[in-house]
UniProtKB/TrEMBL annotation:
Top-level taxon in the UniProt lineage: Bacteria
Protein name as catalogued: PPM-type phosphatase domain-containing protein
Taxonomic source organism: Cellulosimicrobium cellulans F16
Taxonomy of the source species: Bacteria, Bacillati, Actinomycetota, Actinomycetes, Micrococcales
Length: 263
C-alpha cells in the first residue's frame, strides 16, 4: 500500500513549489520566473504542468516518464502561449510505483533519495560560476542580501539563460519539450526501494548544511514531523543566518517542499 506524506513552506498560495500525487506516483516541482518579463507567473506554469502530468500518469500508466513530461511541457507551452527563452521554468522530480518496480525522473536540482542513492541533476552548476562565486563571497563577508547581491543574481541569470535547453548546456522544464529526453531516469527492478524522499533545493540544502539529512529518519516522519523540520530550517535561516554568511544562497528563504513516498 502506497503512503505519501508531504509538507510545504509556505503553502501553495504563496509558493512556487508544488507537490502532486496520483494513486501510484508523486510529482515535485520547483518553479522559477522567466528570464524576461512575461505575463505568466511561475505559479501558473507549475500548476499547469503539474495538472497535465497528473492526467498523463493516470491515463497512460505504462508510458515512460520522459514521454509524459515532454507532452506536459508541450501542452503547457501551448496553453499558456509560451516561447523558449520567454517562459517560466520548473525543476521536475517524479516517482512512480508499478507492480514490478519503481520509475524515477529528475530534471533540474530537485532531488530524489532512495535508501541507497541520491538522484539530482546538477548540470546548471557548470555555468555562471563567476557571478555565483562573487555573490557567495560577499555573503560570507557579511554584506547580506543587498542591492549588489541582487545585481549579481541578475548577471548570473543572464549567463544561465544562454545555456538553457541547448546541447552542451543544462535542461529544465520550460517551453522546449525535448528537455524531457535529457532528464535523469532510473528504473528499479523487483527489489524496489521501500521508501523515497523527494525534495526541492530550498529544503535539502539547509538540511544538508545543518546535518538534518538522515533520510531514513525523515522517511519515517508523519506530516507533522516534516512540517517541524521545515519550520526549523526557516527559523535557522531567519534567526541564525539572516545574512547568508554561514550558508550562502540566493535569498534568505527559498520555498521548501518535501514528500515521503513509502512504496
Amino acid at each position: 500500500m502506497m503512503r505519501v506524506v508531504t509538507a510545504m513552506l509556505p503553502d501553495a498560495h504563496a509558493s512556487q513549489d508544488r507537490i502532486f500525487t496520483t494513486q501510484n506516483a508523486v510529482i515535485v516541482l520547483d518553479g522559477a520566473s522567466a528570464f524576461v518579463p512575461v505575463e505568466v507567473s511561475p505559479s501558473t506554469y507549475v500548476d499547469t504542468l503539474g495538472r497535465i502530468l497528473v492526467d498523463g500518469l493516470t491515463a497512460e500508466p505504462e508510458e515512460s516518464l520522459s514521454e509524459l513530461l515532454a507532452y506536459a511541457i508541450a501542452e503547457s507551452a501551448s496553453l499558456l502561449d509560451l516561447q523558449p527563452g520567454a517562459s517560466p521554468s520548473s525543476t521536475v522530480a517524479i516517482a512512480r510505483r508499478d507492480g514490478s518496480g519503481v520509475d524515477l525522473l529528475v530534471l533540474g536540482d530537485s532531488q530524489i533519495v532512495t535508501p541507497h542513492d541520491v538522484y539530482v541533476d546538477t548540470r546548471i552548476d557548470r555555468f555562471a560560476q563567476a557571478p555565483r562565486a562573487a555573490y557567495r563571497a560577499r555573503l560570507e563577508a557579511g554584506h547580506g542580501f543587498d542591492e549588489t547581491h541582487r545585481e549579481l543574481l541578475k548577471v548570473l541569470q543572464a549567463d544561465q539563460s544562454r545555456h538553457r535547453n541547448i546541447d552542451g548546456g543544462y535542461w529544465i522544464a520550460e517551453a522546449v519539450p525535448a528537455a524531457a529526453s535529457h532528464a535523469i531516469t532510473v528504473r528499479t527492478g523487483p527489489a524496489a526501494p521501500t521508501w523515497l524522499v523527494l525534495a526541492t533545493d530550498g529544503a535539502y540544502r539547509p538540511m544538508q548544511h545543518l546535518g538534518l539529512d538522515d533520510w531514513a529518519v525523515i522517511a519515517a516522519q508523519d506530516s507533522a514531523g516534516l512540517y517541524r523540520l521545515l519550520n526549523e530550517l526557516n527559523r535557522w535561516e531567519k534567526c541564525e543566518d539572516a545574512d547568508g554568511r554561514a550558508l550562502p544562497r540566493a535569498k534568505r528563504h527559498d520555498d521548501k517542499s518535501i514528500a515521503v513516498f513509502e512504496c
